[in-house]
Structure formats: structure tokens, C-alpha cells
Design a protein that fits this description.
The complex is a heterodimer of chains A (114) and B (116).
Chain A: E1 4-7, E2 10-13, E3 19-25, E4 32-38, E5 44-51, E6 57-58, E7 67-73, E8 76-81, E9 90-97, E10 104-105, E11 109-113
Chain B: E1 3-6, E2 11-14, E3 19-21, E4 23-26, E5 32-38, E6 44-50, E7 56-59, E8 62-65, E9 75-77, E10 86-93, E11 104-106, E12 110-115
Parallel strand pairs in B: 2-12
Antiparallel strand pairs in B: 1-4, 3-9, 5-6, 5-10, 7-8, 8-9, 10-11, 10-12
The chains are: A mainly beta (114), B mainly beta (116).
Amino acid sequence: GAVVSQHPSRVICKSGTSVKIECRSLDFQATTMFWYRQFPKQSLMLMATSNEGSKATYEQGVEKDKFLINHASLTLSTLTVTSAHPEDSSFYICSGQPGPYEQYFGPGTRLTVT
Amino acid sequence: GDSVTQMEGPVTLSEEAFLTINCTYTATGYPSLFWYVQYPGEGLQLLLKATKADDKGSNKGFEATYRKETTSFHLEKGSVQVSDSAVYFCALRANAGGTSYGKLTFGQGTILTVHP
């Protein structure tokens, strides 16, 4: 149990376009979802925390207008990278948390901006 | 703020060797501590956890003990296998009541490669 999926697993987009990444909890209700960014050979950096039905809370230094997060339901959160640039290329990982317990992580989405 | 420091890798071992990956943390109060594993091309999986001082988390032959006096949570395994090759992340979660409750703070990750 406690499976989180992400779609797509890999995406390539042109500079200036927007791309949406979906994160779904398949067998539990995620009252809270987290979005992380992982640079090559580095750790995960928390970008934002989202609670179903409310606005996401962004970490310091993360542009909320560039990284739009929508937690539409207890099983779905989306991250939209707007006007993507090559420096946005990264591995994006989401996690779902069913209450005050462990986070369950998705497999990640590799974004490449050309 | 909270922080986690792991020993730098990569770590390369032969099969059946003993493994230690050091992890120390800085946090206020009494955080929960975790080890996550990331296999190539996959997301993070929880390996083990400890929620209070002197707790020992264990799973799949891996162990780690929450040492408050040394603010450490070192990962150990007595005999590693090739299938243990992965990236290992130490992490902490702030204690309840704080504004950062629920957030995980990760160490930088340690790459482990086990050769036959």
C-alpha cells in the first residue's frame, strides 16, 4: 500500500513553454502533499507544501508564480512549471502524507528544458 | 534551522562487507529521524525510522539508533549485498507543534556501490 505515482516520468520541453506534472496517491488520501526538487548528485530540496483545498506554502526562494501548485483533491496535486528555462531542468519528486505520518514518495519526473 | 549532515560518498564495498554511513543532525526539540533509500531511476523509499532517543530502527538487515547525546543516526548493515547498491538519505522531521512540523530535511545523500 501507500503508492504515489507521478506523470509523466520524463518530459522534454522547449524554453518558454509550460509543463504540468501530476502527482497521485493511489491507495490513500493525502491531506498534505510535498514537492521536492533534486539536482544531480544532490539532496532533495523542499519546494512547497500543499494541503487539499488551500493554497500551497512555498519555501523561501521558490517563486510561486513560476511553480504553480494545485492540490485539487485528496489524491491529486499538480505542479506546473511556467515559462520554463534550462535552469529549471531537474528531477521533481512529490510525496503524499496521510495525516501526521510518514511521507510516501513518487518515482519522480525528469524535466529537461531545451 | 534544522540540518542533516551525511558522510560524503561514494562508498564502494565488496559483497558481505560491513557498512556504516554516518549521519548527524541539528534540530530544536526532539525530531523524528529517518533513512530513505533511492534505487536507480526510482523514488525514495522509507528504509527505517526512529521517533525518540535510544530508539533503534531496523529493516532488511539495516539498523540505526537515535543517539540524542551525539545527535547522530548512523546507518549500519553487517553484510551488504549487490542489491543494496543505491543512494541513501538521512532525514529528520521536526517535532509536532512547530511551524515546520511535517517537513522533512534531508542530508545530501550517500551513494553506495557494492561489488560482487
